[in-house]
Batch of 3 targets.
Target 1
Amino acid sequence: MKPLWCASITLSIVLLAEQARLKTVRAVQDAKAEAEIASLESKLTEQILSGDPAYADSLSDDYVLIRDDGSVHTKAEMVARFVARDPANRIEALQPSDLKIRIYGDTAVMNFELYWAQTVDGRHLGAHSRMTKVFVKRNGRWFMVNNQGTFLSAPTEVPGPK
């Protein structure tokens, strides 16, 4: 009877451990997908700095940007901003660093630091933010669905572009 009892306990422990393992969610190592996201981020940065409205092609239709100040903006608002190209309100520099990309199947989460400089109502401001972006893959293409920033330093006056 004792061997049966030990085997039963051992089996229960193994089954509980396997059940716990199946409930764990972890990113998968996918160098190709990580490289695609890093490349897309580089492309988006270039498009933002150049004011290229093709930026919108990489945003999902229900894209949401949550800024450092808590304001929420839609894809339509972002497209309108690109079309307006107001010289009194423009992004002058974006320098992402320390990118961490995690892949969960057709979803990617990217965390990074961002130094940015922009003109706001004619004032030249710069700051550091911690960013989180979420991407989904549809029909072989990655789309950004969410972008959120948190200030690491408050915006301060910086020298304007030359």
Target 2
Amino acid sequence: MKLTLLIPASGVLVTALIGAILIHVGSAQWRAYELAKTKPGIILLISEAMAVVEAVSAERDPANGVLGSADRPDPAQTEILRKARADSDADIARLEKSLAHISMSYGREAQKSLDKTRVLLEQARRDVDSVAKLPRQERTEQLIMDGAVFRMFDVVPSALETVMLLIQGGNKLCGSLPDTIAVARLVNQLREYAGRLGSHYTAALAQQKPLLANESQAILLSRGRIEQLRELIESPLHFLTTDPRLVVAVEDMEQRYFGDSLNIAARLERTSSHHQMYNVDAWQFAKLYVPGMGTLVKLRNVLISIAMEEAQAEVVSERQHMFEIVLIGSIVILVTALALILVYVRVLHPLFVISQALKSIAAEDLNIKVRMPARKDEIGEIYDTIRMILTNSIKSKQIQMTQQRTTDELETSVMNLIALNAELEQIAREAHIQIQCDGSCVCAVQGVVARRQATAC
């Protein structure tokens, strides 16, 4: 294959390979960018699912107050319970609306889990209302706990399952979610177990009796789980981030929940163990214990905010990387194109001209003109050499033509002399025969001879 074809073909092939590599890298970066864009939406879904867990758990607090109230619950307590239920319904409806836009399998699974949560919640509410309508003396410990409180407990695992399904789906779709999401899930569970701990006192406060053995055992288990979650939450936070918002939220949780709220519960347990009067009912206890749990929700919100910021920063970073790849790819393609043009102008075209010139010289066509700007590279040296060859060839051709013309002239002269010599010999023979002719004939012969000599010269 000629160089004039081989080099352009090689250039096109190299450009195609570079283009294929850039397309592959660009496609991979585009997919990373698209996945990064889904993370904020998934984190928002997870946050809404956690809000459902917290709302359902928080609904137990006023429900416990109503279960431990007098025969006729205070209208204010009933209104607070109604509002808590409305908040739970609003959070569930918000999550359902968001899940309706998710076509992935994990979205459908989360929707089924949420539907189960709604069904269980409606049943638990009916059980709470049924027990709350009974006279206070008929609300036995077993009826309050087994017939109402535990039914509310049964709702939360289904809501927590929705959170877990969304987290698993998000990790599967996006590769991995921010680590703060896993910690936020633990805080979400901590809020539930903190609420359960408070609910275990409901029957004793409703009846103003000491805690039963099974209640004390349940309280001990809840405290153990709370401490376990506390350790699981605080340990990774020292390594994940030093965000001042997180530091403040953790300190607030330590002071208000692990300090104030658990101390209130501990005093209640000591009062029960001494068989003393509680001096508070379930409603009053909830007003003292529940505010500290708000710090858990605050910590969860901070963690979600940090995760959302990380996801949004990742979107910006991936978009920046994509722009960088596009820019670098454009520069590479442009440089490659310029290099090919330069090779054509500086190498291929001069080689083509050289080839044509050499062919013309080989064919003894010396009328060609070799024009090129002065160059100091190898191509320039070749051009100079060709000019010298062409000049020498022209000179040689001219010399050959001169020699040929001279040879032709000499051959013509020789032929003329030969012809003259033959004619003279003929004349001589004729003259010998007519030697006796008169003087006039001799003169005639001499005149002819004179004319022949003149012609030969």
Target 3
Amino acid sequence: MSYEKEKISIVIPCKDEHEGVMKLVNQLQFQDIINQIIIVDSSDQPLQLKEPKVKIIAASSSNGPSVGLARDIGYRYSSSSVILFLDADCTLPDGFMQGVEQGIRMLNGSIGCVGGPVESEVNASMLQRYYDHSLFSPFPRYYGTYIHGWSDMYKHHHPSTSNLLVKKELLERVGGFHGGYGEDLDFMLRMAKQGFLIAYIATLKVHHNHRNTFRSIVRNFIRLGAYYPRTLIDFPSSPVLIHRIARLAFGFAPAFILIFTYPTMTIPSLLTPFLGYYLLRVKNVKAALLYTTLDCVLQLLVVPAGVLLGILKRGRLVEKKVKKRSQS
């Protein structure tokens, strides 16, 4: 099936991000290629926005659905065959709609979705730009093109649902998005396991308002660690997860042990390569020191703590299921 002449639906989850989502709608609403803009709003104060193409779906404001569930709710209201998922705190650079058109042309045959780079805002702080430069960023930053499947997803960071074009029929076929953290990787693994391919193009780039406090970054990486156990249980043979777990086990675990065993020797030898990398990349001593420190703290302490929390949470869920079965 060809989607070239199809108009698309946009799905945007929104949780108390009214200013950002209104700016995004202003960038989108006059584009002929767009059929409708669906906003799943779980804000404490309901979003007030009346535009011809905009449909607001009110979700519960008490904590609200997870961003994955919000996307899942939104696409089911779509009347289009192609869905573009965006985040409420994204802005679109010049040329983005040409990237959308290019992506739509690629959605044929076995290609199920198309993503692109996620970059910080132009006026982002030094801390926010950590996501642009870190070796361990949770956002894709590759400025090329690739098409991957189940066996070679590990070669690049998978696309983000911050800017993802997807066939609606594919979403229905694989069951949409789940409600936990890491919903983008979970969706792509389910899709790839069924034989569909993941495409990525640089022209689909968006600017994202990244986390701007140390506390919010720590919480982000704890959640990243927490989804590994569940995803590994659901997809034990996934090459991308095996690759990531191997990196954690054979890279960071020994470093963690050595730091506490031989700190005076290990810490300088560990920090020097990272510091050199960031000095070459950002050419700013203060930023290089900050990013090196964040990498070490997040990868040696925060992510493992998240993995442990994920294991404990998974254990509690299994225990509840066993109790229910025994009582029935």
